[in-house]
């Protein structure tokens, strides 16, 4: 397993590339962000685009929000520019109390908010199928958070959808995607984390029919074109720094957790949903890196910690099973511990993690998987 | 007798696929060539991929031909032959020469598809058309697709035919003679309908045949 | 009536499933178990997985992953990559594969095809040829050795004579491009071969599937389209059905 020589991202991350110096493309992108981009020009470009796309009499754009620091920051940025956004929240799978408070706080910044409460039975069926099928308990959420704002865009005649960071740029991805200012249906299908599964693949699961998936199909091409739906990454137009964003959000009432968030070392991300921690844990067992690695790499790139500190944090926090979140997830789904463990085992990376002579994965005292020597972060 | 499914291991074919299919529909199945274990079975499955002559040689040398004669023809245990396993119950097979089969289906022989515009082997998904009703096809719609992969086919009077397939001409692709069932196609590779056949077979009892 | 098959064809690299683009860069498709489960849910007709670690880096055949994938597959599974001996064939089939795909070893000695067919049957052998167009002529290509001065049609004919069950033709130039299959290549082979042809490389939309069948393909292999576009195998089949090609829809 190779690790980036600048941050600590491993080469198991899908579609991440390393150059001849062993530096990953996310780190190279950061360099570009720091030195090569004229952010003033980008901001002006953004305002021009907003003006050009305005159709609805009252709203300038739509922002898909969760209530997290990023969506709070997006709303603040857009309000600061004098724009009137319509916010759309596709509710999290298993909402937390602090998540609810933060969504309410976002609403009180002074925006109209559509809070979508979907059919819980259909959604739960998809959550349970998705974790078994592709090892991602948040699959329906990845889909819904993109498709529902698009539906609102089409139905309210608001062409412009504002997203936050381009994850391919921030975390690394195929060259084709990194310069993308736009998020459209094609981006969703290629990079939206759908793992090859599509909404149509859920038909028939627990009796799910086409009408049950209304929210999860991206709007018809003809409607998208008629309205001129255009999704933009705000991260293309404003320099994205997670700690500066956090600071900004906190000044406007955003609350952090009073303790370290499970699966990582910090306390300000992934606050609104327990299922997200389970998702991050599954990512860890599949690829050998989790949320702590993601956070540490970003912190290194932004200059907040050294690579040495990143190695220490990742070694200490990455991969610890999020017991509280798993407990909530089991309550929500009705899976037993044994069923859940069997699902996780079926996706656990046999190359990275040690097994005993019976082929069973070896676990540490805290339930963490044990990495083979050559796969320990260094 | 409670259900005890045995898959005959005679050195031909992907036995694990068949075992897996039974597991998927909720039944465990033992892969073995051990005579004692086979004698305890209620259901016997004979899969197979490969050449007729080699298969019969193996069955004979392992003493399995004689054992199966007793278990299936005398004790009337439930039998499912798959692909080559179906072909072997014919009287004769003509792949690389003439070979004796198990002879359970009178006047049946295994011959090669004629050279024609159609490609050989017959490989892919093709429809099975019902010929006579059979409990093996419970909950399976007529004209369902199953996976075929063979160059030789079972030529026999249609007395025991329960399913036919069309590839250049109609040929028997499934038979039932009392407790003896067989399919030319691979139910363990035929997704939903295939798994239904596996399940239907596993659920059979001697009584249900009457 | 025999149905035309849609067959996802993917590569195994570093315990992940990937797709290559013109035999150059790779895009990650995902975890083998997850991907096979999605294909199963989509009721695909067959699945082909080629282990490039085994074929390019001479690593041992990854029987564990083959078994993991075979355990999820209730449709035929073809495994290729690094299969050089009869023992290798036993290993791969024993791990759960239904058919083997042979590429480099058969170029060296086409009689290997006959050896496998004699023991396991022709239907077990898929002969895989990768083809690149150089100066207007089609040539055999291998990732390890590049363009070889071998006529792919003559090679395919030889494989047919040796008892190969099917031919998997991959266009290096079209692979991962979504520009459509190479019709010219297909027409050349379809008029000469008598064993089924699986065409691979380039499908970007359902119409490409129709074109390929019109040009003589028996089955369509693809992967890029299913993972990086909105098209699913069912959509391809529906398009084929509209053009009166027999396909399996349920």
Provide the descriptors you would attach to this structure in a database record.
heterotrimer, A: alpha/beta, 2 domains, six-stranded mixed beta sheet, 17 helices, 6 strands, B: 210 residues, alpha/beta, nine-stranded mixed beta sheet, 13 strands, globular
Description:
- The complex is a heterotrimer of chains A (378), B (210) and C (250).
- Chain A has 17 helices and 6 strands.
- Chain A has 378 residues and is of the alpha/beta class.
- Chain A has 2 domains: 25-34 and 260-375, no CATH class; 37-237, Rossmann fold (3-Layer(aba) Sandwich), CATH 3.40.50.
- Chain A has a 6-stranded mixed β-sheet, with helices on both faces.
- Chain B has a single domain, classed as 3-Layer(aba) Sandwich (Rossmann fold), CATH 3.40.50.
- By secondary structure, chain B is α/β, with parallel strands linked by helices.
- In chain B, 25% of the residues lie in helices and 31% in strands.
- The mean pLDDT of chain B is 92.
- Chain B is globular and about 50 Å long.
- The two termini of chain B are 16 Å apart.
- Chain B has a 9-stranded mixed β-sheet with strand order 2-1-3-4-13-12-11-8-9. In chain B, strands 6-5-7-10 form a 4-stranded mixed β-sheet, with helices on one face.
- The longest helix of chain B has 13 residues, at 191-203.
- Chain C is built from 11 helices and 12 strands.
- The longest helix of chain C has 10 residues, at 32-41.
- With 250 residues, chain C is α/β, with parallel strands linked by helices.
- In chain C, strand 2 and strand 3 (25-30) form a beta hairpin.
- Chain C has one domain: Aldolase class I (TIM Barrel, Alpha-Beta Barrel), CATH 3.20.20.
- Chain C has helices at 32-41, 52-56, 63-72, 86-95, 104-108, 111-120, 152-161, 183-190, 206-214, 224-228, 233-242, and strands at 5-13, 16-21, 25-30, 47-51, 77-80, 99-102, 125-134, 137-142, 146-148, 166-171, 197-200, 219-222.
- At the B-C interface, helix 1, strand 8, strand 9 and helix 6 of B face helix 6 of C.
């Amino acid at each position: 397993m190779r690790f980036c020589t600048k941050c600590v991202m491993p080469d198991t991350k899908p579609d991440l590339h390393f150059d001849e110096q062993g530096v990953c493309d996310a780190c190279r992108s950061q360099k570009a962000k720091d030195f090569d981009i004229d952010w003033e020009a980008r901001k002006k470009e953004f305002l021009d685009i907003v003006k050009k796309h305005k159709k609805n009499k009252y709203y300038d754009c739509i922002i898909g929000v969760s209530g997290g620091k990023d969506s709070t920051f997006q709303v603040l940025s857009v309000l600061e520019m004098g724009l009137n956004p319509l916010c759309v929240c596709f509710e999290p799978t298993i909402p937390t109390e602090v998540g609810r408070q933060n969504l309410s706080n976002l609403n009180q910044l002074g925006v109209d908010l559509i809070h979508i409460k979907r059919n819980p039975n259909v959604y739960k069926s998809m959550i349970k199928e998705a974790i078994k099928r592709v090892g991602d308990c948040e699959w329906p959420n990845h889909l819904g958070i993109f498709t529902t704002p698009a539906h609102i865009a089409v139905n309210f005649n608001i062409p412009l959808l504002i997203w936050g960071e381009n994850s391919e740029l921030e975390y690394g991805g195929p060259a084709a995607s990194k310069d993308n200012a736009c998020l459209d249906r094609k981006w969703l299908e290629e990079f939206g984390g759908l793992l090859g599964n599509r909404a149509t693949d859920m038909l028939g699961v627990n009796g799910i029919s086409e009408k049950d998936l209304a929210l999860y199909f991206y709007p018809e091409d003809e409607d998208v074109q008629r309205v001129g739906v255009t999704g933009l990454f705000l991260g293309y137009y404003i320099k994205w720094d997670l700690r500066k964003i956090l600071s900004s959000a906190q000044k406007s009432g955003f609350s952090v957790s009073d303790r370290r968030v499970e699966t990582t070392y910090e306390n300000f991300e992934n606050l609104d949903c327990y299922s997200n921690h389970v998702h991050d844990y599954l990512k860890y067992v599949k690829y050998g890196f989790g949320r702590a690695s993601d956070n540490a790499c970003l912190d290194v790139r932004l200059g907040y910690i050294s690579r040495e500190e990143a190695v220490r944090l990742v070694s200490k926090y990455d991969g610890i099973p999020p017991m509280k979140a798993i407990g909530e997830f089991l309550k929500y789904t009705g899976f037993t511990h044994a069923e859940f463990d069997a699902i996780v085992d079926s996706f656990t990376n046999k190359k990275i993690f040690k097994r005993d002579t019976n082929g069973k994965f070896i676990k540490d005292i805290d339930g963490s998987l044990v990495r083979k020597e050559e796969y320990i972060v260094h | 007798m409670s259900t005890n499914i045995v898959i005959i291991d005679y050195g031909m074919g992907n036995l694990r696929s068949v075992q897996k299919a039974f597991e998927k529909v909720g039944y465990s199945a033992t892969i073995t060539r051990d005579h004692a274990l086979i004698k305890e079975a209620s259901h016997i499955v004979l899969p197979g991929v490969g050449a007729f002559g080699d298969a019969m040689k193996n069955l004979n040398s392992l003493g399995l031909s004689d054992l199966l004669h007793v278990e299936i023809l005398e004790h009337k245990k439930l039998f499912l032959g798959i692909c080559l396993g179906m072909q072997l119950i014919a009287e004769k097979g003509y792949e690389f020469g003439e070979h004796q089969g198990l002879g359970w289906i009178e006047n049946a022989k295994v011959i090669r598809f004629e050279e024609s515009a159609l490609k050989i082997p017959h490989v892919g998904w093709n429809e099975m058309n019902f010929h006579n009703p059979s409990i093996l096809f419970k909950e399976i719609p007529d004209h369902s697709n199953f996976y075929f992969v063979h160059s030789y086919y079972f030529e026999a009077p249609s007395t025991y035919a329960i399913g036919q397939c069309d590839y250049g001409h109609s040929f028997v692709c499934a038979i039932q003679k009392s407790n003896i069932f067989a399919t030319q196609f691979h139910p363990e590779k035929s997704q939903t309908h295939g798994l239904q056949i596996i399940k239907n077979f596993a659920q059979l009892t001697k009584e249900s045949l009457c | 009536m025999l149905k035309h098959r849609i067959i996802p064809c993917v590569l195994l690299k570093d315990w992940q499933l990937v797709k290559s683009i013109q035999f150059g860069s790779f895009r990650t498709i995902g975890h083998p178990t997850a991907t096979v489960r999605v294909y199963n849910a989509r009721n695909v007709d067959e699945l082909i997985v080629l282990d490039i670690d085994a074929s390019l880096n001479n690593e041992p055949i990854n029987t564990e992953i083959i078994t993991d994938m075979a355990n999820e597959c209730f449709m035929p599974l073809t495994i290729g990559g690094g299969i050089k001996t009869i023992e290798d064939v036993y290993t791969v089939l024993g791990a759960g594969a239904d058919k083997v795909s042979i590429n480099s070893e058969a170029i060296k000695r086409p009689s290997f095809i006959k050896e496998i067919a004699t023991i396991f049957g022709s239907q077990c052998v898929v002969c895989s040829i990768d083809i690149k167009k150089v100066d207007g002529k089609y040539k055999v290509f291998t990732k390890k050795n590049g363009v070889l001065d071998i006529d792919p049609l003559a090679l395919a004919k030889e494989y047919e004579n040796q008892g190969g069950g099917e031919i998997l033709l991959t266009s290096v130039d079209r692979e991962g491009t979504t520009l459509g299959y190479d019709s010219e290549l297909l027409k050349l082979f379809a008029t000469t071969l008598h064993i089924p042809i699986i065409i691979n490389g380039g499908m970007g939309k359902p119409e490409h599937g129709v074109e390929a069948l019109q040009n003589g393909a028996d089955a369509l292999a693809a992967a890029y389209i299913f993972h990086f576009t909105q098209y699913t195998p069912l959509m391809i089949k529906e398009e084929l059905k509209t053009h009166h090609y027999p396909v399996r829809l349920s």
